[in-house]
Amino acid sequence: MTSPILDFLRRLHAELTDLRDGEVATYIPELGRADPEWFGICVVTAGGHVYEIGQTDIEFTIQSISKPFVYGLALEDNGREDVLAKVGVEPSGDAFNSISLEPGTGRPLNPMINAGAIATASLVPGETALSRQRRLLHGFSSFAGRPLAIDETVYNSESETGHRNRAIGHMLRNFGILTEAPDPTVELYFQQCSISVTCRDLGVMAATLANRGVNPLTAKQAVRGEYVADMLSVMNSCGMYDWAGEWIYKVGMPAKSGVSGGILAVLPGQLGIGVFSPRLDSHGNSVRGIKVCEALSQRLDLHMFNRRGSRQGAIRLHFTGAKVNSRRVRSSTEAATLQRHGHRIQVVQLQGNMTFATTEAVAHLVAERHDDLDYLVLDFKHVLSINDTAARLVYELATQLQAEGRHVLFTRSDRVPLLARVFRHKLGTDFEERFISFEEEDPALEWCEERVLAARGAPIPDQKPPRLVDIDLLRGLTGEELDIFGDHLERQQFAEHDLIIQVGEEAGELFILFEGRVSVFVGSENVQRRRLATFSPGMVFGEMSMIDRSPRSATIQADSPVVCRVLTREAFDRLGVEHPSIKIKLLENLSQALSRKLRKANLELSVFD
To answer: Across the chain, how many H-helices and E-strands are there?
Structure first.
């Protein structure tokens, strides 16, 4: 199964492939060798799910995208006070290589312009140039989740042509921002810009920032979480140079671009985006990269100033029909069938505010379990809201599964009416047939179970009265013993909606259901009346009275016209006197049935724990 998120990225990539505005950067000679047609997109969630399309494995140099990461390393190694003494955080409104210094102090206005980045590079600790380079590469590799290296060819090209940056270094030395000879620091700056990365690396690095400094693929802390906000703040206000204001207005995510064609963007707490396409606009930003980020923000509602809730994912609980069953009580044969094949039913309880970023985990889970899935139940009972993007993502997921012959069911979708509106708009006259909705999770689970059982040749419930030999309670009885047992039974009939057992009344009989269906309820008609179980022909109920002789603990009502065979307590006691071997077998079967129920309850409790 292809993820609907990946399908969206594939369509977006195809849509923008023909966009050929802009020029490849040539002021550093090695950058001019890039193929202008290279184009990759990578989205990585804070949960570690990676979605990529295009040339995401081609290596290019990170250039100015390195600046916020070195800033983070400087903060971690020196502390906020010392770093702020060397470089400010105010937007300059000027080009990346402008000489923007505070009047009087000579402090660069922010770490995203070259002057600020050189000042930041001077704070990377180390006794030698090699040790400082190692600190740099170790930090970047932690963000990317793999070892990174410097492209020596690009580094040499930058060093040979970087006269303006050397001039900036000497100017910073003049104002005391650099306290030693500037050339080693400027060379370290050239090296940080020459670190080789891929589009996928950018996506992972962005997701690490989204995940408060913890790489979501390696689970390792790349930078202390307290400094991530500092890094994202300067990216937010200064990361796109003199186009930063328009960027934050249109896209609404902290970002950083580089003249090699990369763009890195972060939606805090949720995901990171990496884009690579070498053609640049007049501001030095990737033309396709800008368009990709605008489209992702607008079509998937990722603008950070349009957030509703927490970073909590949309999945509250996930289980299969092999671990949790409906309240329809099954025969031992049916229960065994569901134990073997119930994993084909996948139930996902949803929660919170559903947006693209929180709902992505649902799509990922379904894609992960796709081969074991015939029925998907999406329960919206605990959902607070759903936006249009999340609703469309659910629609695309459902229609893709339905096209493969699988079934998608919805429960409590009344809590999010937008979902049904999206489906109705998309499906038109097919809406009623394809939007299968239930008021509660339990009947939806039962609907799926019936089809799993039917597909495995299980008999259709209620089709015909069972034989005594097929009833679990009577397992192990000989033909003669079955005849004797049958002589001790009384026949009783009930109309639909009749109360067969009333909670609190004295218990005096055990019922074997031969025709119709009955349900067990707790509570009254007016106060939290809730179904506990439903029995079909061949099932036994009221059996607890034969063991503990306590008052009835629940109400049992006929769902349809019902025929039962009843074993009274007196008849049960008489069996013990006249045919003790029969009574012993009955008690053994009852204890085994109660043991199975307890084990099943324990398993279900473990799922919900």
So the answer is: 22, 21
Task: Write down the pLDDT at residue 524.
Answer: 60
Q: Nearest 10 degrees: CA dihedral of 48, 52, 55, 59?
A: -10
One-letter amino acid identity for 377? V
- Does the annotation count 251 as an active-site position? no
Catalytic residue among 51, 227, 241, 395: 241
Is 67 annotated as catalytic? Answer: yes
Q: Is 189 marked active-site? A: yes
- Assess contact for 225 and 239: CB atoms under 8 A: no
Quote the CA–CA distance of 221 and 225 in Å, as a whole number.
Answer: 8
DSSP letter for each residue of 258-285: -TTSEEEEEETTTEEEEEE---B-TTS-
Say whether 381 is catalytic: no
pLDDT of residue 595: 83
What angle do helix axes 580-608 and 479-487 make, rounded to 10 degrees? Answer: 90
- Residue 305 confidence (pLDDT): 86
What's the Cα-to-Cα distance from 345 to each of 101, 153, 326, rounded to whole Å?
63, 56, 11
Judging by DSSP bridges, how do beta strands 345-354 and 375-386 pair with one another?
parallel
pLDDT tens for residues 432-448? 999 999 999 989 999 99
Q: Which of 51, 71, 155, 189 is catalytic?
A: 189
Distance CA 448, CA 444 (A): 6
Tell me which residues of the chain have a pLDDT lower than 70: 92-100, 307-312, 458-464, 524-528, 603-609
Neighbour-count burial of 336, counting CB atoms closer than 10 A to its CB (0-12 exposed, 13-18 middle, 19+ buried): exposed
Q: Are 381 and 349 in contact (CB under 8 A)?
A: yes
Residue 259 is among the residues annotated as catalytic for this protein: yes
Angle at the Cα of 67 (from 229 to 236), degrees rounded to 5?
40
DSSP line for 135-162:
HHHHHHHHHHTS--EE-HHHHHHHHHH-
Phi and psi torsions of 527, nearest 5°: -125, 100
What the chain holds in terms of domains, given with CATH numbers, is 4-303 (3.40.710.10), 318-455 (3.30.750.24), 468-608 (2.60.120.10)
* Residue of 3, 44, 66, 67 marked catalytic: 67
* Residues near 577 by beta carbon (within 8 Å), at least 6 away in sequence: none
Taking the C-alpha atoms of residue 263 and residue 221, their distance in angstroms, rounded to an integer, is 23
Residue position matching structure tokens 């099932």 = 539
What b/e string do you get for 439-465 counting C-beta neighbours within 10 Å, with b at 16 or more? Answer: eebbbbbbbbbbebbeeeebbebeeee
Take residue 52 and report the two structure tokens written for it.
């990529």
